[in-house]
Recover the amino acids of this structure.
């Protein structure tokens, strides 16, 4: 795959007002264009990799566009591996646009989405999974999401994939030797050794694939649905978690008519919390539609917070909800403790053995610390925390890992039956190719284009 020779330019900072903004160019012509449009302040000169103060001027009209700090970075030790220029101008949309247009006029062309990073990949500086990590780093909304993306960016994840690929390669080499120099005496041994090696490789692939549940959670957030009959304090909980009056709270049952969804960062875990309309047998049409949405949210939730008004006896409405929530990851809140406890913790424990239960008073202005602790512990359950562990956050990677695992599974089954090595070899080789696609070694142009199309402009 050849590196595109044309020089690309884009605004690399976010749109809108800012203290500074950056226009970036990459390619063979970047240096030439830069020397034509950048005028160092008197007494200054352009030194590679050093910021220089000066101005950007249109050489044709001699119009000065902006006062800037700029840097020229020669290939190959740059972000893209090509010559790169960065111009730090005032963060005005006008300045940025004019400088960019001047770069175009002087011979650069607009960069495509993710094209700077794509060039870093095509230039061999980073592999495909590292390039994909760049978007995750940029988009990370929580500390945890950021840390996991950084692990992928620094190559730890790719290293793990390469390690497994090498193990598989060793098996393929053994097979090739045995096909070329068959030795009937050792054939039994070959199959035994192969089965062990394949099983080891498959276990590693499976462990990575299994981490996708955690990965999805870190990246997309955990869907939490707050459910219960009307007036138990669902909206009060929502507000306490968010620390603001997001949902209307009144003493009138049926206050929340529509589901309300908000994102919320719980100590690094992104949550998508939904406050729902209290579930009851409603006659009002609007409320009925709201209740349907409540049920829908409940069905899609990763974690359900079921609230009970503990100051009053359980009634039919509670019972009805309780009859459908088993099987969900469940946190039960016995709310309104301040009004006295009629529904005891024991009673609920007996109904839902092993379930996490919290006693809360979420009346006006209360804090939801205990609920946060409980949710955090339930989500973490020990396994996400270890920052050593590599987590798969990318659906493309997870899919390829599953395919590789299935090929290895087939190969193991055939090995047990002592099928001809030539046949088993095909599956093993295919599994290696799937792993290679993750880091871009076996990826086709289409896959690569698709990966970079998800980027933002200027990256
Ligand atoms: N005393 C006391 N009052 C509470 C507590 N939690 C909520 N409330 C009150 O209970 C009433 C109902 O609270 P909401 O949060 O609106 O209840 P909800 O479950 O969202 O109700 P719907 O939207 O109607 O389904 C309000 O008057 C709250 O102030 C609590 O722990 N103790
Ligand atoms: Mg409500």
């Amino acid at each position: 795959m050849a590196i595109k020779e044309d020089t690309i330019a884009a605004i690399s900072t976010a749109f809108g007002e800012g203290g500074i903004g950056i226009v970036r160019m990459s390619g063979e012509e970047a240096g030439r264009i830069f020397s034509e449009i950048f005028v160092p302040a008197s007494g200054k000169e352009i030194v590679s990799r050093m910021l220089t103060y000066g101005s950007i001027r249109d050489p044709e009209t001699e119009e000065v566009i902006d006062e800037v700090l700029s840097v020229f970075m020669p290939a190959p030790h740059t972000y893209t591996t090509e010559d790169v220029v960065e111009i730090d101008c005032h963060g005005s949309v006008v300045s940025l646009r004019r400088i960019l247009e001047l770069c175009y006029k002087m011979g650069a062309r607009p960069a495509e989405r993710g094209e700077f990073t794509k060039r870093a990949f095509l230039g061999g500086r980073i592999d495909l999974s590292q390039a994909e990590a760049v978007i995750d780093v940029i988009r990370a909304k929580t500390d945890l999401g950021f840390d996991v993306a950084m692990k992928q960016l620094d190559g730890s994840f790719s290293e793990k994939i390469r390690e497994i690929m090498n193990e598989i390669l060793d098996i393929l080499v053994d097979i090739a030797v045995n096909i070329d120099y068959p030795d009937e005496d050792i054939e039994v041994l070959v199959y035994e050794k192969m089965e062990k090696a394949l099983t080891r490789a498959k276990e590693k692939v499976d462990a990575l694939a299994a981490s996708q549940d955690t990965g999805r959670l870190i990246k997309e957030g955990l869907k939490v649905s707050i459910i219960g009959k009307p007036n138990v304090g669902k909206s009060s909980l929502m507000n306490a978690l968010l620390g603001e009056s997001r949902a209307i709270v009144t003493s009138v049952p049926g206050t929340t008519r529509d589901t309300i969804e908000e994102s919320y960062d719980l100590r690094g875990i992104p949550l998508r919390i939904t406050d729902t309309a209290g579930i009851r047998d409603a006659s009002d049409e609007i409320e009925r539609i709201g209740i349907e949405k409540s049920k829908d949210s409940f069905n899609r939730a990763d974690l359900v917070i079921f609230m009970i008004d503990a100051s009053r006896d359980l009634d039919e409405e509670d019972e009805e909800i309780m009859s459908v929530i088993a099987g969900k990851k469940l946190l039960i809140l016995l709310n309104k403790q301040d009004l006295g406890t009629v529904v005891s913790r024991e009673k609920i424990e007996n109904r839902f053995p092993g379930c996490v239960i919290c006693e809360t008073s979420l009346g006006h202005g209360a804090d939801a610390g205990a609920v946060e602790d409980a949710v955090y512990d339930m989500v973490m359950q020990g396994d996400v925390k270890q920052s050593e562990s590599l987590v798969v956050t990318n659906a493309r990677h997870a899919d390829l890992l599953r395919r590789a695992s299935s090929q290895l599974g087939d190969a193991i089954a055939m090995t047990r039956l002592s099928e001809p090595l030539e046949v088993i070899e095909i599956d093993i080789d295919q599994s290696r190719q799937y792993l290679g696609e993750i880091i871009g070694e076996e990826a086709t142009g289409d896959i690569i284009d698709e990966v970079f199309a998800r980027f933002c402009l200027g990256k």
